[in-house]
Amino acid sequence: MRLKHLTLAAMCSLFALWAQASDLSDKLTSNDYVLLMRHTLAPGVGDPTGYTLENCKSQRNLSAEGRSQAVTVGNWLKKQGITTADVRSSAWCRCKDTAERLTFKGFKVEPTLASFFDEMDKAPERTQALQNFIAERRQTKGAQALILVTHHVNIHAYMGENIASGDMVLAKVDGHGKMVSYQLIPRPD
Question: Where are the alpha helices (DSSP H) in 30-85?
Fold first, then answer.
């Protein structure tokens, strides 16, 4: 009798996990959702003085732990049922390295995801540009997930909340690319 209850409990748990995975992938294949992700662990704040986007060695980059975290996130997303994705990244190397390690058949650099850490006064115009980009892409992305790898400042300006390295935000968006609601998804370990 006890074995029957344990088996039933295990089956219910598996069903709940499957339903959650299906829910995330279903949402991301619709035009109503986008997944924003903060790059994985790159110790420090900002970039060194004199950095350039053309020289990764001059920037703050992912640590070994950050590189491993990005692979883990990519594997986790695939376990959630996300099989295809339009992955876009900021031009900063820590974001590109994160996007690459998600392993969704490549990524493209998207200028609207660029950090404005050094120009915080540009937050409103950069957020509007991001909304415009999301509005455009949601109409043409088809059934693939739209995953945007960017920076803390960009995500904070868009959603109004701080998130940790590698965390994700499942954002429900309207036709203008504005966030209607969101669900914070902590980085899986």
Answer: 64-79
Which residue type, as a one-letter code, is found at position 102? L
Number of Cβ within a 10 Å radius of residue 2: 6
**pLDDT tens figures, 78-127:** 999 999 999 999 999 999 999 999 999 999 999 999 999 999 999 999 99
CA–CA separation, 41 vs 31, rounded Å?
29
pTM over 0.90: no
Q: Please say whether the beta carbons of 145 and 175 come within 8 A.
A: no
> Half-sphere exposure of 69 toward its Cβ, with a 13 Å CA cutoff?
23
The torsion angles phi and psi of 147, rounded to 5 degrees, stand at -115, 125
**Cα torsion angle, 54, 129, 78, 60, sign:** positive
Both tokens assigned to 34: 């986008």
